[in-house]
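Dear colleagues,

I hope this message finds you well. In preparation for our joint manuscript, I am sending the DUF998 domain-containing protein (Candidatus Lokiarchaeum ossiferum) sequence together with its predicted structure, so that both groups work from identical material. I would be grateful if you could confirm receipt.
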Amino acid sequence: MESLTINKTVVFLNCKNVIKKVKTNPTIHSAFVFSIIILIITVCTYAQINFSRPYSIFKNTISDQGSLLLNPRGQKVWNLGIICAGILFLPHVLYLSQIMCVGTPIASQILLITGSISSITFSFVGIFPAEFKIPHCIFAGITFVGICLVANIYFFLNLKKLRDINGGSILNINFSQNYKLEMIFAGLVHLFLDIALIIFLIQFINQGKLMPISEWAYLLGVMLWMITTTRSSPITIQNKNKSEILNKLQL
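The corresponding C-alpha cells are as follows:
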C-alpha cells in the first residue's frame, strides 16, 4: 500500500514536470497543435473519400462524415479520430490556462474549466454519431460554444498580458512589425470565428436546420485560432522580443 502511494506521488510529480516544460516551451506546444489539426484534416479527408456518394461541404454537414448510414465505410475512422482529437484538445487547453494563470488566476481557471468540458463533449461527438440525434446535437452544440468561449477568453487575456509586458499600453506595442501583424491576424481570426458561430446558432434556433457551410467555416476558424496560439502567446512574444533586443545589442 505504501509502495502504491509512493508510485502515485512519483507519477504526479513527473506529470507536473512535463506540464512545466510544455508551459515554457512554445515549440512543443506548436508541434502538439499541428498534430491535432493534421489529425482532423486526415480523418475528414478519409471519411469524404469513402463517403457513400460525392461529399459536398455545401450539402453535407460535418457530422455526416461519422454517420453510420451515410458513411458506412469511413465512419469508424472519422468517429475514432474525433474522439482522439477531443482527448488531445485537453492538454492544449491546459497549456493555455497555464501560461495565463499568473495575474489572472480566476479567468485562467474559467478558461480551463470551459475548455475541459468542451474537450469531453468533443470526444462524445465521436462516441455518439449523427444517428443518436439528441445527444449528438447537445454535445456538438456545447463543443461549438465552449471552444469559441475558450478562444475569446484566451484572446482577451492575451491582450491584457501584452499590455502588461508593454508597460500598460496596447496601442504602442514595442515589438517587430511581423508580430504586430500576427496580433492583427489573430484578432481577425477571432472575429471570423465569432461570426461563424453566431450564424450557426441563428440557423439552428430559427430553422432547426443548418447550412453545412457555416459548420465548415466554424471548423476552419477553430483551426486558424489554434495556429494563432502558437504565434501570439505571451511566452512567444516575450522570447521574440528578447531575441530582437539581443540582436540589436550585437549590431
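For the figure legend, we might mention the following. Helices lie at 2-23, 26-49, 75-100, 105-127, 133-165, 177-207, 212-229, 234-250. The CA atoms of residues 79 and 126 lie 4 Å apart.

With kind regards,
E.M.
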